[in-house]
Amino acid sequence: MPKIHTLPLLLLLSLASACSPRDFLTRRLAADLIAGSPGFSSTQELWLRTGVVSNRDYLSPEYMVLQHHGWITGSNAACPVQVGPAPCWDVALTPGGVNVFRDLIPNQAPISQYFSVPSARRELVEVTGISKDDQTAEVDFQWKWVPLNAVGAALYNEQVQYISIVAFRHYDDGWRVIETTPAAPNQGLDDALKNAVPAQ
Fold this sequence. Notes:
elongated, 2 domains, 9 helices
């Protein structure tokens, strides 16, 4: 009699071993896959050019914030051949800007006059919904920016949360978040983050 009872148990164990935890798209799994994806976890960089820049660059939202904080200043300058259209500006860090950027600027920056500064990272707030069929799913989630320094705090409001919708696909090894969707109807993570809207 004991042998008869072990057969269903063995069948159940073999079925369970055929499935992995990634075969079931729960909110927790979706959150782990989104938060761990390279597109979501990459650091946001501010690219800053000092020296002569075009009017378009000088009036960009990022440069306007830096001007507002008194970290950069600009004076009218002649446009080099490769920079334009006029007017152009000779951009320099102010003494206050030097204090803020001193530890953030790479060593080679004074030579290149064009450098990146890590400013913020994304933080997943929560997965708010999942709509799925057998092989594909759409996951709604909320996230926010977390500033890494004073520059990030000036550029990104930590209190604002964003809503995004991203596509998932079920593969032979389980569910995966879709990073890019060049020709697919569903939205990959890159587009989901670009098209994010502030939460109400």
